[in-house]
Amino acid sequence: MNQVLSAEAAMARAIDSARLGLGKTYPNPIVGAVITSATGELISEGFHQGGDHAEVIAINAAQGKTIGSTLYVTLEPCNHHGKTPPCVDVIIKSGITKVIYAVKDPNPIAAGGAERLRQAGIEIQAGVEEVQARLENRAWLTKVELGRPRITWKIASTMDGKVAASDGSSKWITGEVARDDVAHMRSQVDAIVTSTATVAADDPLMTSKGKGRNPVRIVMGEKPVNSNSQILNGDAETVIINSRDTKKLITLANQRGFNQLLIESGPIFGTALLRADLIDEIVLFQAPTILGSGTPSIGDLGIMNLSERLDFEISDVEILGADLKITLMKSAINREGGR
Fold first, then answer.
1. Annotated catalytic residue: which of 55, 76, 136, 281?
2. Is residue 313 annotated as a catalytic residue, yes or no?
3. CA distance linking residue 183 with residue 178, whole number of Å
4. CB 249 within 8 A of CB 177
5. Helices (H) and strands (E) in the chain, counts
6. Would you say 35 and 71 are in contact if contact means Cβ atoms under 8 Å apart?
7. With 278 labelled, which of 35, 74, 140, 192 sits at a CA distance of 20 to 30 A?
């Protein structure tokens, strides 16, 4: 006999499934779905990974056992015909009698699914585990809200905030466990962005190193990229933007429908994005070592007074081998225009 799942446990399982779609779904959101019997026994589950939507995958996996069942889904089922038919049509035909979703669809093109299901006689409940579901789907939600992808800046520094020694050497500040985690991060984003200066200095490959799919690689700057650079190899698509204008980066990202960009560069480019208010998240890998001198991780932001500081909120802290991984998200104070 299958384990009986509470509404919260079923939705948590759907959220865990949704996370498996990171880096695979753009321009669409990550979505997970779980189907249980009326008494809470697990029937099937699925997640969106670029093709059929999560609800459809879960319904197909149920093999006809959906009559009278409950569907848990991390995002309100869609009500429009895009690459695939509306999910609400499949749900109605399946015989599912209750739909519980975490986050209301903010996209006006796809919204209205809950009302359509309600009109078909299906019981609707919204907001279960909404906070966690929104957190996991924050890249796509940021894109809908701000009209651009969510942008995360990865920094690897010493305890005193240095990313390179005085002679310019920077390999390796953090340990192997932290570097493996960065490779995993790459597999979950749509594109990695770096600068021509970083390519010239480090000749990075910038792939997921077998941890998953390789994202698109974007190189920005006015200097030419050496034709022998590793970043131009055939492991992944590479796009070169011969400019320092961050608006061109956003234009390209929106044209491609990217949900999330990962910035892997030195402090000059990262600081420029920070000054342009384009950094939503910072993932800081901090090694337990001190240089005392060298290149600081963040450059001059033009801040003269403590009241002008940029505040971030600590979202998560992990110990990776000998290093710390600190995830910081832009503070709500900054989002509202204050400091």
1. 55
2. no
3. 9
4. no
5. 11, 15
6. yes
7. 74
